[in-house]
Amino acid sequence: MDLLESIRDAGVIGAGGAGFPTHVKLGSKADYLLMNGAECEPLSRADQYIMDVYPDEVIKGFAIAKEICQADKAIIGIKGVHDDLIAHMNERIAALGMSDVMEIGALPNIYPAGDEHVIVHELTGRVVPEGGIPIAAGCIVINAETTYNIYRASEGKPVTEKFVSIVGDVPNRITVKVPVGTPVLTLLKLAGITDTTGLACINGGPMMGMPMKDGIGGYVTKKSKEFVILPSNHGHWKRKTISLEAARRVDKTSCEQCRMCTDNCPRHLLGHNLQPHMSMRVMNYDLKSIELKATAQLCSSCGLCEYYSCPIGLYPKSANDILKNELREKGIKYQPTKTEFKPLRMRSSRLIPSKRLISRIGLTQFDLPAPFTEVPESEINEVKIMLHQNVGAGCEPIVAVGDHVEVGQMIGKIPEGKLGAPVHASIAGSVSEITPEYIAIRRG
Q: Could you give phi then psi for residue 120, rounded to 5 degrees?
């Protein structure tokens, strides 16, 4: 079995949030292989601790990925403010004899430094074309935890564990390694929360994460990165949970076309034809121009326009979301009109410092370390492993209720000819339930 097959069968996907199957991504030849260790979301901590606690596995996995995609150059992107981590990683790179294989590139402490288009430009000077992915600029970007999983796959170990941070308004901010499928409520207990009354949870970062609107529930998937706990009356939670229809009404009554949303837009600053203020104009005045509407599809949903830039607290990202939905229903896609892209001259003066963003959204008091904490095996007695955790198709169960499974045993396979990634048992025990959404396993 070759390395790509090992990565596929191990169920490795993008661990940073998107969940694209890694064996497909590494199947292309690249000029640059880039590792995203930026962790640009406010309060995010997990990747820092993976690189700190498991540097050798991360470095070896990155070297394997470079070999597979035959990249000419491999660069690990870490924010320059993490100078101790950079020194630690450089020390381990040298100790492993990898100094001629890879190097570390210092990223600015900005949001969104971890956006694929932004990290490509910061580390290589190239610009990914409008609506394109990094390989269109000769680059492949993988997450720090993904490289850890690549190394484990090369050792015959599938993805059964996940590194997750529990941060925000919790007694003990922690980063843990837990079985895939662990209940979120168990994580909160580990963080010292016994009563969730008056609390809200964001699955992912404060900017791009999804609000868990139906109470604090759910289960860890291979894409989980952090869970942000906030008081349910926190201003940022209220803004994140506004409906698109309510956002439309507010936008229509108040937008004065000041352009601040566009002037700070990360994709606009890279030379893309994304102008959130124009999306607001198109939506508010019901303009019929398909060309103007379609630019909304260039939006990465970073949320900067909505949570930081607008001086009166409007919802430009929501305007883009509304237009995206409309265009999706009509089967219309944005068609670029040029192939060469250059960053705007004023880009460097419009980058948003992470600390300023954290202050603007009211999270400064929660911007504290979340130390790596070992979790006893006995804490996790049952898991629910989602059958659809990746970009592409979900998995088909290959076990039955009552079957005994061991850690690492494949329990869901990719449908024939489909894009996807298999799933594996993360604890040893009996299959207690199978639904169209998940496979439940009870320990013992």
A: -60, -45
Task: Compute the distance between CA of residue 371 and CA of residue 49 in angstroms, rounded to an integer.
Answer: 8
Domain residue ranges in the chain: 3-154, 160-234+362-379, 240-355, 381-444
* Extended strands (E) in 19-62: 32-36
At the top level of CATH, which class does the domain 381-444 belong to?
mainly beta
Side by side, which strands form the sheet with 73-79? 103-107, 73-79, 32-36, 139-143
**What residue type is 19 in one-letter code?**
G
Contact 227, 43 (CB under 8 A): no
| Fold adopted by 3-154 | Rossmann fold (3.40.50)
Write out the E strands in 80-225: 103-107, 110-111, 139-143, 161-168, 174-179, 199-203, 210-211
C-alpha dist (Å) from residue 278 to 55, 289, 306, 320, 359: 45, 11, 14, 10, 27
pTM over 0.85: yes
Q: Which CATH class is domain 160-234+362-379?
A: alpha beta
Q: What are the tokens at 408?
A: 């690492």
Residue 75 one-letter amino acid = I
Compute the distance between CA of residue 36 and CA of residue 16 in angstroms, rounded to an integer.
9
163-201 per-position pLDDT tens digit: 999 999 999 999 999 999 999 999 999 999 999 999 999
